Amino acid sequence: MRYFFSLLAVGCFLLATNAAQDDLAKKDISSLQGIWQSVSGEEDGKAMPEEKVKANKLTIKDNKWTFVEGIGQPGAGEVTTKLNPSKKPKELDATSVLQVQGKLDGKDFHGIYSIEGDTLKICVTEPGAKRPTEFKGGKGVVLIVFARQKK
């Protein structure tokens, strides 16, 4: 009987923890809604050319993120995201659902994000690579800083 109550207590704790994580994710998703303009970026440890930085735009609606110029890829792209704000740094997992060239359809990206006011930082690796642990460029890593566009 004690075993049953122990399992029940552990189950309740896990449900409460998952509910709290879901609430944090919903809060972050809500705060990210809108249109974002990139202000700086790095690819493979090198600064993005200014014209590419200016061309990068991100529209976030619910968990669907649409890129113009895409992260590290020419053209437009769309990903569905899942956020885990309980991690340090906050984690994001994205699955490509639309890519102009079609090379990234269905590919999974792992990254981290930070939102502070009207500034959003995203750092992702190429599909299949390990998630970055800090906001730092490097081989196979894309780091973009966005500013929220005012209405």
SSE blueprint:
Elements: H1 2-32, E1 34-43, E2 46-47, H2 50-55, E3 57-61, E4 64-68, E5 76-84, E6 90-99, E7 108-116, E8 119-125, E9 141-148
Antiparallel strand pairs: 1-2, 1-3, 1-9, 3-4, 4-5, 5-6, 6-7, 7-8, 8-9
Describe the structure.
The chain is α+β, with helices and mostly antiparallel strands and 151 residues long. The protein has one domain: Lipocalin (Beta Barrel), CATH 2.40.128. The protein has two helices and nine strands; from the N terminus they run H-E-E-H-E-E-E-E-E-E-E.
Distance between the termini: 60 Å
Q: In order across it, which strands form the biggest sheet? A: 1-3-4-5-6-7-8-9
Fill in the CATH topology: Lipocalin
Low-pLDDT ranges: 1-19
Largest sheet: 8 strands, antiparallel, barrel
Helix-strand pattern? HEEHEEEEEEE
β content, as a range? Answer: 35-45%
Put simply, the count of helices is 2
Percent helix: 10-25%
Count of strand segments: 9
Structural class: alpha+beta
* Quaternary form: single chain
Second-tier CATH architecture: Beta Barrel
